[in-house]
Write a structure and sequence with these properties.
Blueprint: H1 2-20, H2 66-83, H3 104-114, E1 120-129, E2 132-146, E3 149-162, E4 168-178, E5 184-192, E6 198-205, E7 211-221, E8 226-235, E9 239-250, E10 260-266, E11 272-277, E12 282-287, E13 292-296
Antiparallel strand pairs: 1-2, 2-3, 3-4, 4-5, 5-6, 6-7, 7-8, 8-9, 9-10, 10-11, 11-12, 12-13
Length: about 300
């Protein structure tokens, strides 16, 4: 019966990961320094960890932090575009759960099930205590997917789940590349409770060197490098804002920044602001009280 439960859970995990990917977390950051000048050069000293450990409460948008939140918005939407369509190895094979002692045969079986286009998958750790399971896999140049959606991943997948419920947590940290695209570092996490209510997130270094998190991000692409985005973006110092697109934005500038478009973001206590891209070099940020400023990258 326990094996049936595990297989059912893992099949469900595979389905969810196909749709969402398997997300990431952890790390450190400093208070961002708002220089108050007209260039987009807000920075922090400490960006040594690729994981997020900043504020997780909702930000209150005001004139003092609106520029930082605008930079968070740009970082989040550009990261989401880069990760759009990239998936992780979506199946943790049931063969790995049949024993708590990794073997060479298990490595071979896991490789065959996950890395279907080459590479290897090594089962590093399988532990079980009172129905709580931990599986850790190291994937080396593991290639998976189909057609134009073949990805190659090197890194670790840490998967925990319970025999007592359908709850699980999957963390994937490493480097992934897709057909025709450059490699990128990812730190993804996917967590689902016993009723399969799931949340996913991605941690990454933003355009100013600070570490951010995006969650529940949704990207649409018209095929001509024009996008809309909605979702939640976490600033490491100020907290999270919810972002929506008022005017679709383009990402075709040499500096990698959007050159057109307008995005709105909301915070706590009905505070809000917007970010408008005037050109590849200039952008405007404003708060809901009507105060606005123009900046250059």
């Amino acid at each position: 019966m326990m094996e049936i439960i595990r297989k059912s859970l893992l099949a469900s995990l595979a389905l969810v990961l196909v749709m969402q990917g398997c997300g990431g977390g952890g790390g450190s950051s400093d208070d961002p320094v708002n220089t108050g000048d007209s260039t987009g050069n807000d920075t922090t000293i400490d960006s040594t960890d690729s994981g997020f450990s900043g504020a997780e409460s909702q930000a209150t948008v005001d004139q003092a932090n609106v520029k930082d939140l605008a930079v968070a918005t740009v970082s989040g939407i550009t990261q989401a575009v880069e990760e759009n369509g990239v998936t992780g190895p979506f199946s943790i094979p049931a063969t790995a759960a049949r024993s708590i002692e990794p073997t060479e045969e298990m490595h071979q079986q896991t490789t065959a099930e996950v890395c279907i286009h080459g590479g290897e998958a090594i089962v590093e750790e399988i532990t079980e205590e009172a129905g709580q399971w931990l599986n850790v896999f190291y994937l080396n140049n593991c290639s998976y997917g189909e057609g134009l959606h073949i990805n190659t991943f090197t890194g670790r997948v840490r998967h925990t789940f319970s025999d007592h419920s359908n709850a699980f947590d999957c963390v994937m940290i490493g480097t992934v590349s897709s057909v025709g695209n450059a490699s990128r570092d990812i730190n993804w996490r996917l967590s689902c409770d016993a009723t399969f209510r799931c949340s996913s997130s991605s941690d990454f270094l933003g355009i100013d060197g600070r570490t951010y998190r995006v969650s529940a991000i949704d990207i649409t692409d018209d095929g001509s490098s024009v996008y809309t985005a909605s979702g939640r973006i976490y600033d490491p110092y100020h907290g999270y804002i919810d972002v929506t697109t008022e005017v679709p934005y383009s990402i075709d500038c040499a500096n990698g920044r959007p050159g057109t478009g307008r995005l709105n973001f909301t915070g706590a206590d009905q505070t809000s602001g917007y970010l408008e891209f005037v050109s590849c070099a200039e952008y405007i940020v404003a708060t809901s009280n009507g105060a606005s400023s123009s900046y250059r990258w």
